[in-house]
Write a structure and sequence with these properties.
The structure holds 2 protein chains of 2 kinds.
Chain A: E1 2-5, H1 7-15, H2 19-25, E2 27-31, H3 32-42, H4 47-57, E3 61-63, H5 72-82, E4 86-90, H6 97-104, E5 107-109, H7 112-120, H8 126-133
Parallel strand pairs in A: 1-2, 1-4, 2-3, 4-5
Helix pairs in contact in A: 1-4, 3-4, 3-5, 5-6, 7-8
Chain B: H1 12-25, H2 29-57, H3 63-98
Classes of the chains: A alpha/beta, B mainly alpha.
């Protein structure tokens, strides 16, 4: 199962300290625009910038969709629509939910799903998972 | 931009410290106060929204109370978060099985 993920969810998982293990355990895909957003953020010397720098160090597959968009959310939605075995789009950007759903026609899930899955797999304890989520 | 005036009285010590901060930053003290106020209001509102949304998810408040606290759009978002989180917890089982 492959998962299309956007910048907001990548940063949330990295902030929770679980992105590296999630990337090892699951196949994530990002679009070219998401990579560009991360590169842009990584230039800032602040909390988000440092998270973005770390995210760029992980091996995440980058796919350029057949149509480019100015914003990452629209582009991941289009990418997810293009790829048959992508069931979910992982985002924490609630404001973009309607746009993502309209373009992709696929289900949205939050990054909390990843944390819970890591707990179910026994990689994190439920206590650790709860701390990450809240 | 249309604005509304808010008059506040400060203790002399705090007023002096405000002058000092504004002087250090080279900005008018009203600008500094406006920025800090905007930031704090946004933060307070976000915390309030999160709290209300969690209470709704726990079933401790009704949808009517949710709408009353967050407005129609905020309530719609909170309901979306509640439903998507619930579905996510169900789908996490599938995801855990798919992990390498």
């Amino acid at each position: 199962m492959r998962l299309v993920i956007d910048t907001s969810a990548l940063l949330s998982l990295e902030a929770g300290g679980v992105l590296e293990i999630a990337v090892e355990k699951l196949d994530f895909i990002i679009s070219s625009r998401i990579k560009e957003e991360l590169v842009g953020l990584s230039k800032n010397n602040d909390f988000e910038g440092n998270l973005a720098k770390n995210v760029l160090d992980y091996e995440i597959e980058v796919i350029e969709p057949s149509k480019r968009f100015d914003d990452g959310e629209s582009e991941v939605a289009y990418l997810a629509k293009d790829i048959d075995d992508v069931e979910f789009i992982i985002t924490d950007d609630i404001a973009a939910k309607d746009k993502i759903k309209k373009i992709s026609g696929k289900e949205i899930r939050f990054s909390t799903m990843m944390v819970y899955a890591l707990c179910l797999k026994g990689i994190k304890t439920f206590k650790e998972g709860w701390k990450i989520i809240v | 931009m249309q604005t509304e005036q808010l008059n506040i009285k400060l203790m002399p010590e705090l007023s002096k410290e405000l002058d000092l901060v504004a002087g250090i930053l080279h900005i008018p003290k009203t600008d500094w106060v406006r920025n800090v106020l905007a930031h704090e209001i946004k933060k307070e509102l976000e915390e309030h929204k999160s709290f209300v949304a969690v209470e709704y998810m726990k079933g401790k408040i009704t949808k009517k109370e949710l709408i009353g606290a967050l407005g129609a759009k905020g309530a719609e978002d909170a309901e979306f978060v509640a439903k998507t989180t619930k579905k996510g917890f169900e789908d996490a089982k599938k995801l855990a099985k798919a992990m390498k």
